[in-house]
């Protein structure tokens, strides 16, 4: 009888959610079933718009490799950072956002209570062991009522989830293959970052020691 209750839906035990704060939720395993397809799309996008290491306005080279898909992409150089319609490396428009990307982002957002999220930008971050992302806010998007959705793939990372001021204490959250975070509303401008990536077991079908993070954003007004 008990077995029957659980036998029909594996997702009951493989997917759950953790509230990090008001308007910030981790959907554990939410993208697990789509991971292989998402990774194939990442490889295709990187053939057109390769991963590169941006320079920050302070002159530091980022240890995280980045590329984008969608109508707008995030770029940085010594002058500052901004969203552009074309890839500064190729001069071409950024690769189109795959349907599978749109769908997972929209599903995750609506699961978290943001019903009309249509992302127009997806920043793709690539981490190797040692890569880190310093504490920062995501505030370059105009409409801050829209959430951001993040999908983690590959190696696990320790994510720092802070407050609205840099000095506020951070929660440490381990993000693994298939985990999704949705944050918006009162949490939209929280400081966050990623500790230096540690090497470890790489989930199938990946071969290399790598972590990818997709962040879906609404940059232009609807
Ligand atoms: C919760 N990426 O690209 S996403 C970024 O893992 C970025 O590559 C990280 O931050 C990564 O800008 C983390 C998860 C995340 C990001 C921002 C948040 C969760 C957040 C802001 C507030 C609360
Ligand atoms: Fe960020």
TrEMBL record:
One of its GO terms (molecular function) is oxidative RNA demethylase activity. Its cofactor is Fe(2+). Keywords: Dioxygenase, Iron, Metal-binding, Oxidoreductase. Binds 1 Fe(2+) ion per subunit. 2-oxoglutarate binds at residues 125-127, 211-217. Substrate binds at residues 74, 81-83, 140, 166. InterPro entries: Alkb, AlkB-like, AlkB-like_sf, Oxoglu/Fe-dep_dioxygenase_dom. GO terms for cellular component: cytoplasm. GO terms for biological process: oxidative RNA demethylation. The keyword Iron applies. SUPFAM superfamilies: Clavaminate synthase-like. The keyword Zinc-finger does not apply. Fe cation binds at residues 136, 138, 192. Residues 118-220 form the Fe2OG dioxygenase domain. Signal peptide: none annotated. Transmembrane segments: none annotated. PANTHER family: ALKYLATED DNA REPAIR PROTEIN ALKB-RELATED, NUCLEIC ACID DIOXYGENASE ALKBH1. This is Alpha-ketoglutarate-dependent dioxygenase AlkB.
């Amino acid at each position: 009888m008990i077995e029957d209750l659980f036998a029909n839906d594996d997702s009951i035990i493989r997917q759950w959610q953790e509230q990090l704060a008001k308007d910030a939720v981790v959907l554990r395993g939410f993208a697990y079933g789509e991971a292989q397809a998402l990774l194939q799309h990442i490889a295709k996008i990187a053939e057109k718009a390769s991963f590169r290491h941006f320079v920050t306005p302070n002159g530091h080279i980022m240890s995280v490799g980045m590329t984008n898909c969608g109508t707008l992409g995030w770029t940085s150089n010594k002058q500052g950072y901004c969203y552009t319609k074309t890839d500064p490396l190729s001069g071409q428009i950024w690769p189109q956002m795959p349907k599978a990307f749109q769908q997972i982002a929209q599903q995750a957002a609506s699961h978290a209570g943001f019903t009309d999220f249509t992302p127009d930008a997806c920043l793709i971050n690539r981490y190797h062991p040692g890569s880190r992302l310093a504490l920062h806010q995501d505030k370059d998007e105009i409409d801050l009522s829209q959430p951001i959705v993040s999908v983690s793939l590959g190696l696990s990372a320790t994510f720092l989830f802070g407050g609205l001021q840099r000095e506020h204490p951070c929660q440490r959250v381990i993000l693994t293959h298939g985990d999704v975070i949705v944050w918006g509303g009162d949490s939209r401008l929280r400081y966050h970052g990623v500790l230096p990536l540690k090497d470890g077991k790489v989930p199938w079908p990946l071969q290399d020691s790598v972590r990818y993070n997709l962040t879906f954003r609404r940059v232009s007004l609807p």
